[in-house]
Amino acid sequence: MEKKKFVPYEKLSKRAQREFDKKSRADWGGVDPTTKRFDSDKDYNRADNREIIEKEREDYEED
After folding, report:
1. How far is CA 25 from CA 12, 28, 52, 54, in A?
2. Mean pLDDT across the stretch 27-48?
3. Which of 33, 35, 34, 37 is nearest to 25 (CA)?
4. Residue 12 confidence (pLDDT) above 70
């Protein structure tokens, strides 16, 4: 049985590099990697969320 010769990644052909990269990529496991969006602009308001966080921080600092 003949042993495969080690070839550094940089010296591999582009096709071999693509195959190597393809094997090393992780699977998302059924999760959709696309960005999630809210259906309506009213569903999430960053300013309101910031106010809630500031109130919680003030309550925590008072204790």
Report:
1. 18, 9, 39, 40
2. 73
3. 33
4. yes
